[in-house]
Amino acid sequence: MTTPSGPARRAPAQAPSAPQAASTLSAPSAASSPGDRLEPIQLQVVDADGAPRPGASVTVEQARHAFGFGCTAFALAQPGDQPAAELERLWLDLFDTATLPFYWRWYEQTPGATDADRLRALATHLRHRGVRIKGHPLLWHTLAPTWLQEKDDQGVEDAIRARITREASGFAGLVDQWDAINETVILPVFEAEENAVTRLARARGRMHVIRLAFETARAADPTARLVLNDFDLTPAYEEVIEECLEAGVQIDAIGLQTHMHQGYRGEEQITEVLERFSRFGPPLQMTETTLVSGDLMPAHIGDLNDYVVDSWPSTPAGEERQADELVRHYRTVLAHPATESLTYWGLDDASAWLGAPAGLVRADGTPKPGYHALRELIREQWWVPRGEHRADENGVVHLQGFAGDYTVETDGQVREVTVPRGGLLSQQVPAPAPRRD
């Protein structure tokens, strides 16, 4: 539906305080954490011989969430562009998962001439900063190349297979996951413009095209996770998913778009959507979320693309509303156990889809209240800050925290620990025995 118009930066480290008791943790609290996202963490400190170290001091700090807090990153890393550098700083201070644009019509405007070098440089730049990368999309009827229409159906299928193989294999190790195919509910009946992908779906069936996308991508990069993504959250999308599963198509995650230009859908409706789609089993990704900070799009507009205005400004009242709705939406999504990520569709108003004031940063580059509200939520309330903790009589440090990556330091030695969903129990942390002078 939409087109674009290092380690993830940590929360500022707090000055170490006196070592905390083994059973306490200053943040996050159960009250501020939605659902059952707080996990038990037990770290046993042992010496070089494997013996427990009672009373050992351990410094723990969160480095990244397992849950993907994402955003589009279409225009980051512009060399010598100071406004772009500031946007990147704001981006990295909040998000940890980037969606990059692989819209075929723009990626390969003429056969064989692609945007691969630029996107590879951007993906590498972000990976070096600890950002996870998603490619969007490998196949979509909208923005299919116009030159594809010159081919017959078999030629179109061959070109699709070559395109997906080239991107999925060429970006293996950089791109962790792909929207394998986008918006399949409308695919066979799409009439906004003629395109070769819809023509192929009409000739050989929607499931044939879906299978083509998934199986080709899977063969090209077996390690990448493949997502089925759609804006249509009606039972029609559920029927497509059921058809895929019955046909043996392996879907790694189900993508759900929530562009809320006409107003926040509310906790009840979002929860109902998550409940309906969680029944299939694969985890859910909220792939494209927007909330506007200006006047709402009129409710009678059926296709969001049809709303065209000369100016759509952000307003003070709209920004306060957006901040409140962002916090409510993120809490609702994170509270559902089936969700694994939430991607906001555009950091700034200057590049927002449809020219809407949907960014978290104004056109002049200054953050809106919504940016600060999310920053406080994700990097403060839902974050384990740097803190010193004391092991109990068995050498065990007991904590609570979110699934994700942590750094653990004992006696000047630092190691990385990954906490999965469900918690981490009895992870051994080797440390040298204390000196006895």
TrEMBL record:
SMART domains: Glyco_10. It is an enzyme of class 3 (hydrolase). InterPro entries: GH, GH10, GH10_dom. Its EC number is 3.2.1.8. Residues 81-377 form the GH10 domain. Residues 1-35 have a biased composition (Low complexity). Residues 1-39 are annotated as: Disordered. PROSITE patterns: GH10_2. It catalyses: Endohydrolysis of (1->4)-beta-D-xylosidic linkages in xylans. Keywords: Carbohydrate metabolism, Glycosidase, Hydrolase, Polysaccharide degradation, Signal, Xylan degradation. It comes from the Bacteria. It holds the Pfam family Glyco_hydro_10. Belongs to the glycosyl hydrolase 10 (cellulase F) family. PANTHER family: BETA-XYLANASE, GLYCOSYL HYDROLASE. This is Beta-xylanase. It comes from Brachybacterium tyrofermentans.
